[in-house]
Structure formats: C-alpha cells, structure tokens
Amino acid sequence: MRAPVLITVVFAALFGCDERNPPVPGGMLPPGGGTGADARPNTDAASGDASTSEVTISGRLCIVLDPQDPLVCPTEDATGAPLDLSGITITEVGGGTTTTMADGTFSIMATSIDAPVLVATSPALRPTAVRVQISGPFNNILFPAFDAATWISLTNNLGVIEAPNQGAAAVYITQNLTAAVGAEVVQPVGSVYSPFYDRDGGPLDFSVQGLSGDKGAALLFGVPVPVDETSYTVIGSGGSPLVDVPLDVLDATTTVSFVNL
Fold this sequence. Notes:
By secondary structure, the chain is mainly beta. The protein has one helix at residues 148-158; strands at residues 5-6, 55-64, 89-92, 97-99, 105-110, 117-121, 128-131, 141-146, 166-175, 178-179, 184-186, 196-198, 206-207, 217-224, 230-235, 242-247, 254-260.
C-alpha cells in the first residue's frame, strides 16, 4: 500500500508550483502538498521562528457552491455585487483565531508546523475544515468552504440525516493530476452511509451506486468523530493504486480532502 500525495490545503508560491499538486485559479493550490506521513515541514519557507513551533499561514477562502467542483470560487453575489467575505472566522484546531478580509484573504499564526487543521465558520457557512500539509512554500493557500444553503440542499437531495458526534468529508481524487474516473473510496470504520459519487446531473447529483465520475468526487457522511486520527482508503480505477489517506473528522463539520494517486 503506497502513500498518497496529499493536497490537503495548499500553498504554492505565486512564482511556481509543485508538479505533484494540481494548480487552481489564481495560481494557487488547494489544501495539501507533500507526500503524506513522509512530509516534513519546510521551515525555511515559513514566516516566523521555527524554534517556537509557529508558522504564519496566509490564504484565501473560496466559497463552495458546486460540491462537485470546489475550486470554482465565485466573486459576485446573486445581485452581481462583489462578494463580501469579511468577518469569517478561521481557527486552527488547538490554536489561534483570525478573520477574513472582504476578498476572503486571511493570515493566521499556526502553532503546529507539521499539519495544522484550519476550520472556517460563519452563519453563512457549513463549518469546513482543511489540513495544511507544511512541506514547502505555504503562502497563498486556497481554502474551500461550503456555503451553508448549498450544504443543506445537498444533504436534503441525498436523503442524508446528520447526527451529533458525526462529521462529513468531501473527497476529490486525481490521478496523473486529472480527475480520477472510476476510483473507489472506502469510508472510515463506523460510518453511517456508503460513499456518494459524483454524477453528471448537476452540482448536487451524487449516487451511492458505482464509482467516481468525471469530477473524481466522493462524499462521506455520518463519519464518527474519532478518539484518535482516522483515515479513508482510495482504490484507483482497476484496483490500483490503493492508498490510505488520513482524515480529520470534527463534529458537524465537513473536511475537504484532496488526494493525487
């Protein structure tokens, strides 16, 4: 079983990006980077004093209106006015808190230089978490966070009932840096629902039948909040490769996870 290339929350310096991580609009990368448990923090790229185990993470929030394509970042509201993303809370699990500017940008001092987990919260959002894999330059990360109304419509459409002490995950799989069609996800032990895979009937069209579709997307619901870290398994088209991916599960929160096979 090989280690996945995680793209948990991403940072790419605007002067270039790691070929292992798919680029996203604005020259940024999604959350992640590195090679799973083998990744090591690049303290030379950090802002701050590595001896104090603190690094400054900067990035921009991306509101997810299409669960099949989380990196399409709207810039206008329904009236055509510029989207105001100011005042959204960004919290490091076990660490500090900051808020976003009107354009969704933020900067936070993380107490972990390994793989800090950030959570975005506001009344307009479904609480959304991402793991930041510190293994290279990590400014200008793109942080996908689900719109609350979109999340409610999605769960209603799928007939999903969320209960206390459970979380969810939105998994986006690539292979050779393109959407992985025909991939299978094995959900964490104890999950209430089987994985839902993307279908071609629109942004909210997912099914427990079959495997990943053209978007390489899978949704995990009813994942129990673990005492220790949990994981899910991705099996590529045709049964190979098979990789385990660490997953941070938080109560009533959706964790966004990217993995390149």
